[in-house]
Design brief:
Blueprint (H helix, E strand, L loop, with lengths): L1 E6 L2 E6 L3 H9 L35 E5 L6 H16 L3 E6 L9 H9 L4 E4 L8 H9 L3 E5 L10 E4 L3 H15 L4 E7 L5 H14 L7 E8 L4 H14 L3 E6 L2 H12 L8 E4 L3 H9 L5 E4 L2 H16 L10 E3 L5 E3 L5 E3 L4 E4 L9
Parallel strand pairs: 3-4, 3-5, 5-6, 6-7, 7-15, 8-9, 8-10, 10-11
Antiparallel strand pairs: 1-2, 1-4, 12-16, 13-14
Bound molecules: alpha-L-rhamnopyranose.
């Protein structure tokens, strides 16, 4: 197991083997991050029912921790770098800490440590909506602001969810790309992240609903496989899908880890060009597979902007500018203003489709 902690661009990594040592290190996981343990929290962050003061100054000595699904996920790293930069621009300090696997309970000890450190806000991409909920509720009870981003927790376990795009549009875009690539007919599989991931599961449900539309009557979802947002597992799952379903026309992978691994498998397989692949990916990870013809198109939002929006939301919550109530307006610097929707949801914007024509316009 590897435990990582980052602050700004600085990074320390610690490889450990003994289970006892792992537990001890997780309890003090943030301790490897210079300056973080010295941070004094206010202990009196905003309560969810407190009234907001949109003109309140940003809290002094603000400390915010970003807790991604998994610390070595390149997508999540871009998001967190964006968030850390936004917090630093607001005069605060921020860091990224997190587990080396995206399993359901992997984030709980990190949350507990961040609570002990009295961080002003925790910004988390939840691996499971419920497994992290008790620890997050405990954090809020202790005055720590809680923001979910990318992948939500149970709504009563956080104040705000910063969603990358409307979940339905993320699903619709993927089914549209799939249908274009297989001319509206054929068997396809979904290669997802972990079985408990809130975001992928939401998108999969919306994708299934899309399939009920008459124009998609000839598309058939044969299975949902899980690569656990692990590169090697996703690679092997791709291979297994092709073996199990010899008449498979396409794979849709709504995870950057899965899409890149599936593309790598297909690019050197006889199925290249035979089995279509699309989903959600970063342009920099997918460029070579667009160039070699393995992939025609895929989608994503701007991960830096997602992190920046989450950083602004966390800073605004911790400073009392917002409470997460519907109708409040978040001022998010260069991103402009966002109105908080139902259940504390803030949406970044629509996804972008990348293909050979535009991929070189993007560098993330
Ligand atoms: C992976 C993660 C993340 C998701 C992206 C699209 O990096 O599963 O949660 O938003 O893919």
């Amino acid at each position: 197991m590897t435990i990582h902690s980052r602050r700004g661009r600085g990074r320390t990594a610690l490889a450990v083997t003994s289970a006892g040592l792992v537990a001890a290190l997780i309890t003090g996981c943030g301790g490897t991050t210079k300056g973080s343990d010295a941070a004094e929290g206010s202990g009196s962050g905003p309560q969810r029912d407190a009234s907001a003061n949109p003109d309140a100054p940003i809290k002094e000595d603000l400390t915010i921790a970003f807790l991604p699904k998994e610390i070595d996920n390149p997508y999540e790293n871009i998001v967190d770098e964006g968030g850390i930069a936004a917090v630093e621009e607001l005069g605060g300090s921020a860091k990224e800490v997190g587990p080396s696997d995206a399993s359901a309970s992997s984030q709980v000890s990190y949350i507990n440590t961040l609570v002990q450190q009295k961080q002003d806000a925790i910004v988390i991409a939840a691996n499971d909506p419920n497994a992290v909920a008790p620890a997050l509720k405990d954090a809020m009870e202790q005055g720590i602001s809680v923001v979910t981003y990318d992948s939500d927790a149970a709504p009563d376990a956080r104040q705000v969810f910063v969603n990358q795009a409307d979940s339905e549009s993320i699903a619709r875009t993927q089914i549209e790309m799939l249908s274009e690539q297989v001319d509206g007919a054929g068997k396809f599989a979904i290669l997802s992240a972990t079985p408990n991931a809130t975001n992928q599961n939401t998108w999969i449900e919306f994708m299934k609903a899309e399939l009920d539309k008459p124009e998609y009557a000839d598309l058939e979802l044969v299975t949902v496989a899980y690569g656990n947002d692990d590169d090697q597992t996703s690679f092997q799952e791709t291979q297994a899908l092709l073996q199990t379903y010899p008449d498979l026309e396409a794979i849709v992978s709504p995870t950057t880890v899965g899409l890149a691994a599936a593309a790598r498998y297909l690019s050197s397989s006889p199925a290249k060009g035979e089995v279509e692949l699309t989903g959600l990916g970063t342009p920099n990870q997918m460029r070579q597979y667009i160039e070699d013809g393995t992939v025609d198109q895929f989608a994503l939002w701007d991960p830096t902007q997602l992190g920046r929006l989450a950083g602004h939301a966390a800073a605004a919550l911790a400073s009392g500018r917002i409470t997460g109530a519907e109708g409040e307006v978040l001022k998010a610097g260069d991103l402009g203003e966002r109105e908080i929707g139902e259940d504390g949801e803030i949406i970044l914007g629509p996804p972008t489709v990348f293909n050979a024509d535009n991929i070189d316009d993007y560098d993330f």
